Amino acid sequence: MGSQTLEDLYQEEIADLISANIQMQTVVKRMASKVHDQNIKQLLTSSVTAIGKHTTTLRGMRQGDHQTECRAMAGLTEEARQHAVDADLPATLRDVAMLAHYQRMSHYGMAGFGTAAAYARALGRTADATKLSEIVSDIYRADEISSQRAEIVERAVANG
Fold first, then answer.
1. How confident is the model at residue 146 (pLDDT cuts 50, 70, 90)?
2. Which end of the chain, N or C, is less packed with Cβ atoms under 10 Å?
């Protein structure tokens, strides 16, 4: 489907984000079940909950029944499964790899939600723009925490 208006682009972005969130939530749930470090487990578990809330928010913004599969997130989640979740790695290295892939997926989300917020502002959808910007802030906070956890675990791996 080709986009003719900014509203069309906005609705396509919302549909893409819904798909991306569903895919990411599934793989992050698997990560949380396999992670060794309890602080990372807590981060991933709370992320699963947050992604679910974000998806509910997005569904409230979607108009019509436009659905899509986010192929970019499909690639990111497949890489996460292959190179982290299901990889034959010692526990601490698996934790490091899972954090790296979690951050890759999160950065895709930041870009998408930021784009959707910009579209919403341009369309005069102030309430949507505010909610989308709040989600971007949530993702940034989780990203900062995951960066801190990664540094701690990476140092432990390097020194151990």
1. confident
2. C
